[in-house]
Amino acid sequence: MDKILNCLTELRPEFDFTKSNNFIEDNYLDSFDITTLVTDLEEEFGCIIDGVNVRAENFVSVEAIAELVRISGGTLE
C-alpha cells in the first residue's frame, strides 16, 4: 500500500491522500491524473491495466487501487 501512496503523492504532492475517503469526490484526482497513474502503476507493479477497468470507482481509495493492481496481475508487497 505504501508504494501506491507514494505514486499518488508523486503525482499530486499538494494533497494528503491519507485524509480522503474518496479521491474522486474530493477532487484529488481527475481524468488526466488517472491516465498518468495507470502508467505509473503498470511500471511500478508490473501489470497491465485493461482499459475497461479504468473507471472512477477503481481510483477512489488506496484500497480500490490496490485491488485494481491485483486483478491486473500486479504484485503488491
Q: What's the overall geometry?
A: globular
Low-confidence stretches: none
Secondary-structure element series: HHH
User: What's the story with the biggest beta sheet?
Assistant: none
Overall number of strands: 0
Secondary-structure class = mainly alpha
Rg from C-alpha positions? Answer: 11 Å
Distance between the first and last residues' Cα:
8 Å
| Mean pLDDT across all amino acids | 96
Task: Determine the fraction of residues in helical runs and give it as a percent range.
Answer: 40-55%
Number of helices: 3
| Beta-strand fraction estimate | under 5%
What does this structure look like?
This protein has 77 residues and is an all-alpha fold. Helices cover 45% and strands 0% of the residues. It contains 3 helices and no strands. It has helices spanning 2-11, 31-45, 62-71.
Could you provide a short overview of the structure?
The protein has three helices and no strands.
Please give the structural blueprint.
Elements: H1 2-11, H2 31-45, H3 62-71
Annotation keywords:
77 residues, mainly alpha, 3 helices, 45% helix, globular, single chain
